[in-house]
Amino acid sequence: MTDQNKKPDDKPERQERPDKPQIPIGQLIKTRIEKVAVLREKGINPYPYRYDRSHKIAEALENFDKFVADETEVKLAGRIMLKRKMGKAIFADIHDMTGRVQIYIKIDNVGKPEFKIFDKLDLGDIIGVTGTLFTTQTGEQTVMVSTFEILCKSIHPLPDKHAGLVDKDIRYRRRYADLIVHPEVRETFIKRSQIIRSIRDFLNDRDFLEVETPILQPLYGGAMAKPFKTFHNRLHMDLYLRVADELYLKRLIVGGFDKVWEYCKDFRNEGMDRLHNPEFSMMELYWAYADYNDIMALVQDLLRTAAKKLHGGYKFKFEEHEIDFEPDFKQISMIDAVKEAIGLDLLPLDYEQSIEEAKKAEINTEGLINWGKVVEAFFERFVEPHLVQPTYIKDFPQEISPLAKVHRDNPRLTERFELFIAGLEMANAFSELNDPEDQLKRFKDQVKAGRAGDDEAHQFDEDYIRALQHGMPPTGGLGIGIDRLVMLLTDTHSIQDVLFFPQMKPEGQKSDSDTGTKD
RNA sequence: GGGGGUGUAGCUCAGUGGUAGAGCAUCUGCCUUUUAAGCAGAUGGUCGAUGGUUCGAUCCCAUCCACCCUCACCA
To answer: What domain count does chain A have?
Structure first.
């Protein structure tokens, strides 16, 4: 976290306190540490270097009949999740990334000393087993273990084997434990990876060049948002964590790259809730010689591709909705959408008239400093919550779209659209403003708005104007919120559940007087 | 920021104005095809923190901390 109050040469605070370890060394852990010592005394390394698996668990089970017939010896590895001792035999379940399998250890097969070692193993230990496959009397496919190796001794007990981890706070803080005991959580993140991969493949197929641009920026721009601020000691200057990649990517368009995109983390210093995390993932893309209509077609293609990859088709469930990507995504202008919803045409109104209408509609007019903001407020109030099936809302007012090109049919509007699905804002795109004179004027308007108290107004980026002066071809640009896309496609309600490590406050410390915790 | 809720064993949760309980996990026995294995016994807690009321507080009150839900504001 950056902190404006901190002096530049402050050293980062130490998080851990060695005298007070965060994990209490309870009796359970003590017992396990003693087991580690016992293993070492027996000449067994509890943390060996490698293990040659012959198969993943799922592979062994897929070939079960064949392997039984051939008496194929398999070598599997995984974490012990359940253990059932039957006197001189033990059943256990081991898990790897692909699945689970039951293993069977008999004293007759492994010998008494080895059997005793296995008997002392704990839930959570990682082992490798060698054996053949068979089916038990109750019909379960099982590995008859001939030998086993300890691959990692686990010291910290796992959460309850049935209930798992319930406390959301602990699940996010100890995601490793959450992932061990909740396969469905693992599944969500595998899907996340598949979605990102399908986007990457889609763009590669269309000759978009994947690039990287600065995260630390001397000026922040490309989105209406409050930034995180930090300080570079040697340069002795403030830097900002990017709120968007936009202005750098468009500089690359100026530089002659026709199609560029970046998969990136952006940072916004604003509220946190089920849709917002201070750092989040975006995909931004810029396409020379295209306009926002081309981008609409591209987005529809891209989302269909991702949905098909994940669901095998274009229909899927999200919360109580069935989302359908099959029909062409609906398009409607923001003005028309409001008109359709409440019968009010905002287009012919001037600012004062629009404010009057807003008051009549009981919209809070605080901060609505221009006509564009009023239009947006009407849209958010009366239209946005009802957008379930994919809908392009297009032609945003100019005042709230400082980087978008003026609409070819109406100078009050811009060629900009946002895509809404299931009430979520999924994408934001424009025909990019490439007229340096107009961009200069828009920046000046933003600076004015900033002085008037709009703390999300754009900064004036002189070098960006200079880049546009060199000439940027007509360009269509796009940003897609990846976390929200993953939420949509995995039917997940909260952004924290599609981020491995969502932002959390530091873990609670003992609030006694030994530390100056107040600051 | 407003409203509501929660915080008790490693995990999941009961409970009471007289300093605590269950299931799972752990430890010790018995059990060679079990599967949330079973049976018998045992260990384990400054009951979120600090103050107050009280003879006595885990319980009542106040403050604080953390988390969850929700409204508002923003992406």
So the answer is: 1
Report if residue A197 sits inside a domain: no
* Residue whose tokens read 């359709």: A340
Buried/exposed A48-76: b ≥16 CB within 10 Å, e otherwise? eeeeebebbbeebbeebeebeeeeeebbb
Is any atom of strand B within 7 angstroms of residue A183's beta carbon? no
Give rounded-to-5 percent helix, strand, coil for chain A. Answer: 35, 25, 40
Q: Is the CB of A453 under 7 A from strand B?
A: no
Taking the C-alpha atoms of residue A514 and residue A26, their distance in angstroms, rounded to an integer, is: 23
> Of residues 118 to 147 in chain A, which lie within 7 A of strand B by their beta carbon?
120, 122-123, 134, 136-140, 142, 144
Q: What is the pLDDT of residues A162-204, one digit of tens each?
A: 888 888 888 888 889 899 998 889 999 999 999 999 999 999 9
Cβ A512 to strand B below 7 Å: yes
ipTM associated with this complex: 0.86
Positions 57-96 in A, CB within 7 angstroms of strand B: 82-89, 91, 93
pLDDT of residue A507: 63
CATH number (domain holding residue A46): 2.40.50.140
Asked whether A518 and A345 are in contact (CB, 8 A), the reply is no
Print the domain residue range for A165: 11-180
A381 in Cβ contact with A361 (< 8 Å): yes
Asked if A482 and A285 count as a contact pair (C-beta separation under 8 A), the reply is no
Nucleotide nearest to A278 (CA to C1'): B75
* pLDDT of A233: 94
Strand-pairing partners, residue A77, are: A128
How far is the CA of A436 from the CAs of A26, A321, A476, in angstroms?
Answer: 66, 44, 16
In a domain, A359, yes or no: no
Of A7-11, A145-149, A502-506, the least confident: A7-11
Nucleotides of B under 7 A from a protein CB: 7, 9-13, 23-27, 30-38, 43-44, 46, 48-50, 64-75
Is residue A408 domain-resident? no
